[in-house]
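Late entry, evening session. Most of the bench is empty. Finally got around to the prediction I had been postponing all week. Sequence below, unchanged from the version circulated by S.P.
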Amino acid sequence: MKVLVVGSGGREHALCWKLRQSPHLSELYCAPGNPGISRVADLVPIPIDEIHQLADFASDLKIDLTVVGPQLPLTFGIADEFASRGLPIFGPRKQAAELEASKVFAKEFMRRRDIPTAAFEIAHDLAEAKRCARRFGFPVVLKADGPTDGRGVLVARDAVELDADLQQFFETRRFGAAGGRIVVEQYLEGSEMSVIAFCDGGRVLPVAPCKDYKRLLDDDQGPNTGGMGAHSPAGVLKSDAAAQILDRIVRPTVQGMADENRSFVGVLCASLVLTSDGPRVLDFNVRFGDPDAQAVILRMEDDLLPVLAGGAAGRFETHRLRFRKEASACIVLASRGYPGKPMRGEEIQGLDAIAQRENVEVFHAGTAVKDGKVVAAGGRVLDVCATGPQLRDALKRAYTAATVVHWPSKILRHDIGRELLTGAGS
């Protein structure tokens, strides 16, 4: 099969790495890709938002399956464009992608379908948002309605922070049109984790649970980011809770979308808080999370290609996915200044040395080639991932490997999985 992966980050590198292992694969392309991906796929210089060009490419080369990594092309309707040309694609159509593209739609959908989530109100201006926040009390969560690459969520812990945060939404317009209206939400206490499932429009194939770490700094301090680390198993989920999440959240979401003529094909990722009253949805992604994907894919035992091809065709050929018992961990190496204005252009040392390590994989997230050298070219730069018999082993390998690569502005969290290993989160 000829396969095209759309995207250029660590998630797409992990997808290409896994797809390359399939005996069903004949040719693998990635648009636009990155230097790391170039080792396992042919790069195609088409931006992710040029959906007509991507469709032209897939049509001209008779691509058998296209897999979409990031949210943006899904929001722009890439699945609709491909479907109109009879091109197989694994990813939700534009109406289904609204589950991630609009926080307001997602919250109102959950209320309609009785899917457990935090209490919320919608605000269209600063004064209305302030009134809503005071009704909930502190801390209170503020979410931009539209896409913000994971940065549009602020937590105000007192009145002073509330005023400053609301200024960012409605006065300085930090989030642009995405913050024109916001969700004001009750703050939920509990452990956070992600539950991922593949969907073919009706059936659901659960993926191994994963815990990701959104905050920039240790001990969950600092601003929200796209993700600074992840591990699988999640380590915070009991079997009865897993069944409850599938029955109360994942399957009702897929069924509800179908009932509302928004049939969901692709990856559904629910970010959850495990509260004392049970699991609650923070928000949905309509594609693999990043770095959730990297951690989960390392454990996947099945051949990924026929699974995704079956989903794109609307009929999974398997009833469950198989995952290795070993644990996996992913440590994100970023550049100083992320998630604002990260340092760029610094040469990365040690990539060849880290490639020699057993049970370690390095996925490129934000790199480029300059004068023949690999340089940091984004906020999140590299994902250092490892597997091991237990989570402790995987984390130790990943953190040890992370010391091998270096550039002057490298930053990382040092506490991924720490709470679980010390017993506080088990």
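Two things to note before I forget:
The mean pLDDT is 95.
The first strand starts at residue 2 and ends at 7.
Will write this up properly tomorrow.
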